[in-house]
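Quick log. Single chain, no ligands specified.
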Amino acid sequence: MNLEASPPFVETLGVLETAALLRELTAGLLALDDFDEALAALVRVTRDAMVGVSWCGFTALRAGEPAGAAASDARLSGLDDLRCGPDTPAMDAIRRREMVRAENLAKEDRWPDWTARALQWGVRGVISAPVDIDEQVIGAVNLYADEADALRTGHQLTAMLLAEHAGLLLAAVRDRQRRAAQAGEQDAALLGDGVISQAVGVIMTQRGCPAEDALEVLRSAATSLSIPLREVAERLVSTVSRPRDN
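-> predicted structure:
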């Protein structure tokens, strides 16, 4: 392939640009513990950071759930959503476990229905790279160009690194989301315990804080005193309930 003939805006992406993209993604996704929010951040950052990429999308397959999608531009969300048809570059990438590229969709015949929609919406080129997240979720990151032949070898290399890096970051987000859900279930169980619930109520009244913060106060006290949480709650309730001398 003759890269020298490429217009300046689609020249091979440099190492520094790719490193900046991965660094920005890491900073953005490390703070998140919601998977859908992480997908939205991923496609937005990728669109803004990659020269020659006009839009970015993500197609996600989750075990036991309908396929999900994220798009940097809502107008094009149907290109990533499998409810609009399963015969897509993203599904090819997921099924084959390899990158799929179409430089000029006007000459493409692999996904006729999808391609017709893409051309109608102004998409002229696409790269889809498979993303392995965990045992329950796989997907593909989709890069779109509004000009034919705008996505070149440099974009493929960046897409490959992006897919690998995004898989690790999204797996971490999923793990944090699971742990947060487990912690929420544990908190609910603790708040259902009579004496702990009473102690939480005492702290809420004293500090004017929500139940979650009051429970954290109890946890901190239990840790610093090296005694069980329930015992801390019992002591607090006992102290508050003790009659005061006149």
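The helical segments are 15-30, 35-49, 89-96, 112-120, 153-191, 194-207, 211-225, 229-241.
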